[in-house]
Amino acid sequence: MKMPIYLRAHTVLFRDRLRPNGNSNKPEKYPEYALILDCETHLDAGQALILCVYQICRRNGEGLYVCVEEGLVFADEATANEQAIIREYSQTHKPHVAEGYPNRLRVLSRSEFVEHVFYKLAYEADALVCGFNLPFDLSRLAVDARKARKNKAWSLILSQYKDSKTGRLHENRFRARIIIEPKDSKAAFIRFAGRNGTKRSEGPRKLGRFLDLRQIAWALLNESHKLDTACDRFGVPGKLDHSPSGQVTPEEIEYCRQDVRASVALLNAELAHFQLHPIDLLPERAISAASIGKAYLDAMGLIPPAEKFRFPPFVLGIAMQAYFGGRAECRIRNTSVPV
Fold first, then answer.
1. 139 CB-side CA count, 13 A
2. Global pTM value
3. Among residues 103, 110, 148, 157, which is most buried (max CB within 10 A)?
4. Longest dimension (CA), the chain
5. Among the listed residues 311, 305, 273, 308, the one whose alpha carbon sits nearest the alpha carbon of residue 292
């Protein structure tokens, strides 16, 4: 009597043979430098920039990012009085830098910061750009925005120049835009757009390294946090007890500086937690807990069935008929209604 034979096989897969260029161009997992920033704004609906504090940090032998430069940034439209308050503060306060580095607070306008710090580090040096709820801070540094080609994505313009003939401001096309594409309420994809030049053939194409500290906390803990609760969760000092005023004052500067110090401490704590996972995943690619789970499957050498096998479309269609996705939606909240 003929009977069917069923086999179950376990195989060893050579990923490099299947994907010869899979990791050849992958950047260093933890860059040598990181740029951490935080912005304070007016309290009206526009929330225009009034102040930004930044720290340039360098990774030491223990794997921690330590500050080597701290600076204060005022808005290009800042009044003479606002600039005077920031400059006076910089002369009477010391930066929180590691020993052996310049012991002064650097003061720059928004345009100077974008040109001499942001693009030098983020674009040319491939530094890790960090902030808590980073898309908001990047948008405060932008001078203009456009809708990007993808749905829901935004293209931020950070650099402009003045036309010597007309006096009008134009986009500086030698400085790449930043594309922010929201994934959901907790994560977004952030990258540089295009090439660093006026023509498509000019300059290298770089995506940049943008790490939202809120996003990686969500990926590591599967919990949504604010800066103070995230710091508490990871056991590092958090925010000052201060209500933002929307004005340039010494108290506002100190409040913003502490937010940056808290962000640096949170960055080190989150990366220490992230390093416990033996996976080949860049920290800024940790969009959610699922990203870490997929990286584990990759580390185990498991090839997705769609890449390992070649099924005809009608077979995939039959398989998809067994899939059901449910959805629940609430359009009226906090209100009793008849059902």
1. 17
2. 0.82
3. 110
4. 97
5. 273
